[in-house]
Amino acid sequence: MGRLVVIEGLDGAGKRTLAEALTKAWHDAGASVATLAFPRYGRSVHADLIHEALHRGHGDLGDSVYGMAMLYALDRRDAVEEIEAALKLHDVVLLDRYVASNSAYGAARLHQDAHGEFVRWVRELEIDRFGLPVPTVQLLFRVAPEVAAERAERRAATEEGRAKDAFESDDELQARCARVYDQLAAEAWLSPWRVLDGGTTHDAAELVRVLDLP
């Protein structure tokens, strides 16, 4: 079985760039890598509903913390077989966002921390009930909320179809989410975490060596 590696962080943190660098480094080291990003826009009806709700579609759906969290969870539940198959075929399965994203953003929206009811609910729903695989390691790509906001703004201005959504536009939400992420990482929620400074240039090959995966 391969190893399940998850990259977490704020919107605009640079997770996609890190994923691309790690994938190349693992390939260069002779490892096979499968990648997947959540939500699976364009592939999952649940993900597409998320996108529409975040841009003010479907009435007040986007205002419901538990309603949106359920859509995120259902998107991942429908991907369980894909993830498990990839773990059988590849040395590493690298995910851009996973269960911790649901916990961090939902808790932040409710002004809770990592010890609150919402984080427990997400774990019971996604891991215990839906049977999502537990990560081998989670990487928190940590940047200051204002830096992430600047990157998200720049991405929205330069990439077609990447207009900022309701979460990305809420600076206070992003700051609260960053605090919840820090707590989840400090407590090794679900699995071990490694915190990476998003303001620093990382040697992907060295990071792959340190992770010792596979």
Features of the shown structure:
single chain; 214 residues; five-stranded parallel β-sheet; 51% helix; globular; nucleotide-binding
The gist of it:
This protein is of the alpha/beta class and 214 residues long. The protein contains nine helices and five strands; from the N terminus they run E-H-E-H-H-H-E-H-H-E-H-H-E-H. It is 51% helix and 13% strand.
Description:
With 214 residues, the protein is α/β, with parallel strands linked by helices. The chain is 51% helix and 13% strand. It contains nine helices and five strands, in the order βαβαααβααβααβα. The protein has helices spanning 15-28, 45-54, 65-77, 80-89, 99-109, 117-129, 145-158, 171-186, 204-211; strands at residues 3-8, 33-37, 92-96, 137-142, 193-197. Strands 2-3-1-4-5 form a five-stranded parallel sheet, with helices on both faces. Helix 1 (15-28) packs across helix 9 (204-211) and helix 5 (99-109) packs across helix 8. The longest helix has 16 residues, at 171-186. The radius of gyration is 16 Å and the shape is globular. Belongs to the thymidylate kinase family. It holds the Pfam family Thymidylate_kin. InterPro entries: P-loop_NTPase, Thymidylate_kin-like_dom. Residues 7-185 form the Thymidylate kinase-like domain. It comes from Amycolatopsis taiwanensis.
